[in-house]
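Section 3.1 - Work completed
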Amino acid sequence: RTVMPTPTPTVNVVAYVAEAQNALSRGDYAAALAAYTKIADLEPGNPEPWITKSRLYMIEQDIPAAYSSAAKAVELAPQNAGALTALARAQDWQGAYEDAATHALDALDLEPENVETLAVLAEIYTDVGNVEIAQGYLDQALALDPNHVLALRNQAYLYERLLKYDEALAALDQALALDP
């Protein structure tokens, strides 16, 4: 009788997604980034892990890494609104406002009701001081999803820029209540 070795279970994308979600629930962004890197390795043509990595790098304020991840997502899927939005946000944080606006508007052309894209456009226009356009994008975003955390945070940011501190604190409190 021949004894065969016990097969080693293969870890797949589902396992890494669960690992990433578990890490995020603990606030362990490094572990979540590691899991999404493994997903990107297993699915080299999929832009989604790169988009998520860009978002996580933004949280960690590693803007060059956020930009690099978003650029890779756009390289893989140039017509993906999420990839374009991630790239726009990283460009905004780098001060490349024109490029950021161009990519965000391209994303909005693809998905006119993409709340994250609307929120990012509001952030870009707040950064350049065009508060009327910023507020218009925020109004659209929050009409579509009144509990969208990024839109609420960007509403707080806009209010702060307008010296409306009570309104800024209320919007930030609402965002923090949804995602501490």
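Second construct:
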Amino acid sequence: AEAVCSDFLTRVPSAYSVRTSLAELLVGDDRVTDAIAAFGDLQQVPADYRPVANFLLGMAAAEDADWRTALARLTEARAAGYAPTVLLLRLANVLVRMGSSHDAEAILRGLIKTEPNNPLPYQQLADAFRATGRAAEAQTILDHVHKKFPKPHFASVRPQAPADEFAPAAGRSRPGESAR
């Protein structure tokens, strides 16, 4: 898809709908810098595509840990009606980092409601709960995610195990191993 979009843009450089698709694709691959380059001069975009430019600038600011700028740009893009899942996830992350966990929770619960088969909002909600000292609620979410999205679908989200399960004390064996 990236190659097709890039090839098309060499022939029709003013195709901002294709630039938007390419930028979203690259952001999805955690390539924000490449997305900005593909989108072009963010200060010169047509008015209809300004929300996408704000999204990209917000994503770049978040990568640089410039939370205030990220919040402003992402909020502006969302207010203009541009709100892909990746924007909402990043906006929730920025809100948690700025201490607005209730706002982040509302965004994430909204995503869970509209995208119940996407494990990422669940994971991020658990992370937000952990960041605000709500470990039991985080664990409940992780347990739910682990049941709803079994391995191959989302193997990286697992209920947290006690620390000693992964680092047994000297002389103790791990479960299923024999003591030496």
